[in-house]
Design brief:
The protein has two helices and 13 strands; from the N terminus they run H-E-E-E-E-E-E-E-E-E-H-E-E-E-E. By secondary structure, the protein is an alpha+beta fold.
Length: 191
C-alpha cells in the first residue's frame, strides 16, 4: 500500500514539474493574460474584459499602425495601459480639427486617418495642434474613447521597450470572444 502511494506521489510530482516547465515559459515569454480596467478603449474593448496578449510576434516583425497593444505606463511603469498604435517610429502625428494626421516619407503633406472603429461623432481633441515627432523607437498611442482616454496626447510617445505585446484574443465575455490577427486597415485620404 505504501509502495503504491510512493509511485502515485512520484507520478504526480513528475506531472507537476513537466507542467511548470511548459506553463512558466509560455506565461512569461509567449502570452500573458490581461484584464481591461476602465473605459479608455470603448467601444472596442470594455471594462472587465479578459484578453490574451501575444508577447512574441514583435520579436519577429514590426509593430503596425492600428494594432492594439498593452504597455507599461511611461510615468509609472507599475501600471499597464491598453491603447491603439497611431504613429510609428520616425513619423509625426498631429491632432487638428478633430482629425488625426500622420506625416511620414510616403505622406509628407499628411495622411488623415479614417478611423472606422470609433463610434460615430466621436471627437478627437488635443490640448495643442502641434506635431509630435517620434524617435526611432517611439510610438504614438491613443484610446478609442477619445474623450475618456489618457494617452500620448497627454503623456507623450511610448518607447518600444515599454510595449508588452499586442492584443491577440478577447476570451471574456464569451459573447464578445474575438481573435485579433490583422491591424486596422486605414482607408486614408491625404491632407
Amino acid at each position: 500500500m505504501f509502495k503504491k502511494f510512493l509511485i502515485l506521489a512520484w507520478e504526480g510530482l513528475k506531472v507537476a514539474v513537466i507542467s511548470f516547465a511548459i506553463i512558466i515559459p509560455v506565461r512569461y515569454f509567449l502570452i500573458q493574460p490581461f484584464y481591461v480596467k476602465g473605459m479608455s478603449m470603448e467601444s472596442s474593448f470594455r471594462d472587465h474584459e479578459y484578453l490574451i496578449i501575444d508577447e512574441i510576434s514583435y520579436r519577429f516583425r514590426p509593430i503596425e499602425r492600428g494594432e492594439v497593444v498593452v504597455f507599461r505606463y511611461p510615468l509609472n511603469p507599475q501600471e499597464y495601459f491598453i491603447k491603439r498604435i497611431i504613429g510609428l517610429p520616425g513619423e509625426s502625428v498631429q491632432v487638428k480639427d478633430s482629425k488625426v494626421i500622420v506625416y511620414n516619407s510616403q505622406y509628407p503633406g499628411g495622411l488623415v486617418l479614417v478611423e472606422n472603429y470609433l463610434d460615430p461623432n466621436t471627437p478627437t481633441y488635443s490640448s495643442s495642434d502641434t506635431k509630435i515627432d517620434l524617435g526611432t523607437d517611439e510610438y504614438f498611442v491613443m484610446g478609442d474613447n477619445r474623450t475618456g482616454s489618457k494617452d500620448s496626447r497627454s503623456f507623450g510617445p511610448v518607447n518600444k521597450s515599454f510595449i508588452t505585446g499586442r492584443v491577440f484574443l478577447r476570451g471574456w465575455p464569451f459573447n464578445r470572444a474575438t481573435v485579433f490577427n490583422d491591424p486596422v486597415d486605414y482607408s486614408a485620404s491625404s491632407n
